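Pilot study result, target chain (208 residues):
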Amino acid sequence: MLCVLGAAYDARPAPYGDRLVRSAPGERQSYTVKWTPRARDGAVAAYDTRRGTLRWRYARAGHRPVAVVSVRGQVIALWDDGLLTGTDGRSVRWHRALPDTAEWLPAQGGTGVLRPLGRGILAVVTPRRVTAYRTADGDLRWVLPAGEGCLFRPERALHRGAALLVAQPCPRAAWTGQVVAVDDLGRITPDRRPLGNDLPGRGPDTRT
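Predicted structure:
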């Protein structure tokens, strides 16, 4: 009976249709070997930067990645169904679903949506909100909604040092309100008192 239950467990479909395959299953994954991720043939593929050989391939049944970035050894992918995933090449560490993607993602195509902010934080810029996740575990750190009657423009966001400047066109707002500056701790304002983004047990980040 135990053997039957074990076989049934192994045969279960992977959550979210995940299919992660390493090019050499018996080889130990090493972070001293640098690799570059690419969206290719409906999957996320990581290639050794020195040899150009395939290290691993991550696909989801029935879906394709529309944007891919690498942050601190984690590869973050945005898929055509609005799912955000994080993998280190050994396992798919987390999944997060972006809301309202059917309204904008088909036309947007993922351009400019994934924006690394430094210190292991990724900003996901969508028309209605900027959402920040910790790349190590997918933990939600902060959310910045667009102003009333305004929409963010992911493709027009620009990095300036540690800050990300996000265009927010508003029909009746002053020009100063049409650009929002954020960093890994959230919106940049003179009097902010942000929470830290460290993993549990590492202490708070007290920068202002």
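One observation from the pilot: The chain has two domains: 13-97, 109-208. A full batch analysis is planned for the follow-on phase.
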